[in-house]
């Protein structure tokens, strides 16, 4: 099978899949990157080539991302074989091991305060900075993911019980059937941004780059912006990203007395096991068991020398 036919079959596979539009777009990106690798090969890909591609991905991407790529690629070759259109060269190829521990760390209270203060201090520079201040405040108090911020529309803000609330379409959801409550200042920051925009566009947050085709701000733009702001306040380690704001919300909430169930509701986790990981992370950061071992062993050694 030549490479041109392989690309055509990938398009056919995407059409065949009964998945959401956003999932099909994700498949296209994965196949596009895979075809870049395939096009460099001297001949059509083999099983060993697929394994080599997995290793290449592992050098540059997180384990969860590599796993996603491999699941899609294996699914394609399984379909190819089942339809009698080609060989399943990915059969038996394993993914990668994914640990349950978070690799992105929460910010300390001091780091979070510096980030908020920086965003506030430059928010009067222009519409983009005003938008960024509203986004950072929203994410660091409600734990929203970048995709959830991107999907939000102006009409999704409604008053619920005792506070303005933002209804969100969560991870793996088709409807905006969950919500987060907005502290008064956070809501006011969003209102100030929308007044400054003076438009009737649907998205809650939009692009202000004239060269951008889409009105709605993308998750990637949000991630890049947060990373830049973190660097501005001297937080440049790889473990700190936009998703760290979500971890920060969980950590601060629990440290301030929120129960496991309340934190699970806030983050909208399906299982409390996921929320429990944050508790383990807090306990690990606060413990210094290594020092207990050190004191016991080294103190005994020093006593002997005396």
Describe the protein.
With 306 residues, the chain is mainly alpha-helical. The protein folds into two domains: 3-82, DNA polymerase, domain 1; 109-286, hpI Integrase, Chain A (Orthogonal Bundle), CATH 1.10.443. Helix content is 59%, strand content 5%. The chain has 13 helices and three strands, in the order αααααααβββαααααα. It has helices spanning 3-16, 21-38, 47-60, 63-82, 109-121, 127-142, 146-151, 184-197, 219-232, 243-255, 260-267, 272-286, 289-305, and strands at 157-160, 163-168, 178-181. The chain has a three-stranded antiparallel sheet with strand order 1-2-3. β1 (157-160) and β2 (163-168) form a beta hairpin. α1 (3-16) packs antiparallel against α2 (21-38) and α6 (127-142) runs antiparallel to α8 (184-197). The protein is globular and about 60 Å long. The mean pLDDT is 86.
Write the layout of secondary structure elements.
Layout: H1 3-16, H2 21-38, H3 47-60, H4 63-82, H5 109-121, H6 127-142, H7 146-151, E1 157-160, E2 163-168, E3 178-181, H8 184-197, H9 219-232, H10 243-255, H11 260-267, H12 272-286, H13 289-305
Antiparallel strand pairs: 1-2, 2-3
Helix pairs in contact: 1-2, 5-6, 6-8, 6-10, 10-11, 10-12, 11-12
């Amino acid at each position: 099978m030549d490479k041109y036919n392989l690309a055509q079959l990938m398009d056919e596979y995407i059409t065949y899949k009964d998945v959401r539009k956003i999932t099909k777009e994700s498949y296209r990106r994965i196949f596009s990157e895979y075809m870049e690798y395939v096009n460099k090969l001297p001949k059509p890909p083999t099983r060993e080539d697929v394994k080599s591609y997995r290793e290449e991905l592992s050098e540059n991407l997180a384990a969860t991302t590599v796993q996603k790529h491999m699941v899609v690629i294996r699914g394609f070759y399984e379909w190819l074989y089942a339809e009698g259109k080609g060989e399943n060269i990915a059969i038996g190829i394993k993914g990668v091991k994914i640990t349950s521990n978070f690799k992105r760390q929460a910010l300390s209270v001091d780091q979070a305060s510096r980030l908020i203060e920086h965003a506030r201090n430059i928010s009067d520079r222009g519409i983009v900075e005003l938008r960024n201040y509203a986004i950072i405040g929203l994410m660091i108090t409600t734990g929203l993911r970048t995709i959830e911020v991107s999907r939000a529309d102006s009409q999704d803000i409604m008053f619920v019980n005792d506070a303005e609330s933002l209804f969100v379409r969560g991870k793996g959801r088709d409807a905006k059937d969950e919500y987060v409550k907005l502290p008064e200042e956070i809501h006011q920051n969003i209102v100030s941004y929308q007044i400054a925009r003076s438009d009737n566009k649907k998205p809650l947050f939009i692009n202000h780059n004239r060269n951008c085709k889409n009105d709605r701000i993308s998750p990637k733009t949000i991630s890049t912006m947060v990373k830049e702001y973190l660097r501005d306040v001297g937080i440049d380690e790889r473990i700190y990203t936009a998703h760290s704001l979500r971890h920060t919300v969980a950590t601060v909430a629990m440290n301030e007395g929120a129960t496991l169930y309340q934190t699970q509701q806030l983050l909208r986790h399906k299982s409390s096991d996921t929320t429990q990981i944050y508790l383990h992370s807090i306990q690990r950061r606060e413990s210094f068991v290594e020092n207990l071992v050190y004191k016991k062993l080294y103190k005994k050694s020093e006593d002997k020398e005396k």
